[in-house]
Amino acid sequence: MAQLQSRSAIVTGAGGGIGRATSLRLGAEGARLLLTDFDGDRLEETVALAREAGYVVDGFVGSVTDPATVAELVDRAIAQYGGVDILVNCAGILHSESVRDLRLDDWNRVLEANLTSVFLTCQAVLPSMMDAGYGRIINVASQLALVGAPGHSAYAASKAGMIAFTKSLAREVSPLGITANCIAPGPIDTRMLNPGGEVSWTSERINQLPLRRIGRPEEVAGTVVLLASEVDGALYTGQTLGPNSGDVM
Known about the structure:
This protein is an alpha/beta fold. 45% of the residues lie in helices and 14% in strands. It has helices spanning 17-28, 40-52, 67-81, 104-132, 144-147, 153-173, 200-206, 217-228, and strands spanning 8-12, 32-37, 57-61, 86-89, 135-140, 178-183, 240-241.
């Protein structure tokens, strides 16, 4: 039986690898979907796949760094589905540069896309979830939030901030029936891992992973479903789960 039957879900960054896999898995579990991404072409690909599979789905093109856009997104979900039961924040960007050379504009851009957007979407869905006395908020961070990496200070800081934000949010809203958790994936086979299609870096990293392979977006989506589930995810709040092939333990 579908775990999320009759539940409504917003997924941000739904045009990306993890966002797309998450959207399709939530749909397979019975959730009604409102998917968003700033890349309209990639979003439409995800929406088309969901429709072909027979899922209830709609798309919304826009940037979740804009408060007015976020408000419109949530209003649409409420109008179409009566509320928002599940929020999955997958939207994010990567910028690689040393601290010495990193420009303030790029630092701010990464934090806005990866952290401020999460604050905006979480804040926007809370009234609906509080009225219902139920909600599942799942924010996709990164294992770099836990260990850092050379050249990734802005990205790691934004994801570490996401984890701290989620813990604080969980302490505020869990007594109201709303859980808030993070997922911190390790190396996953997405465009972000290999933006130029190069495989040498991942081939070297595979030998360092205890499981000797990188993950697939669908495997991260399984963790999202666990945390989104009314029953199986009921005891998780303020947690950070790490599907990372054993890279960070």
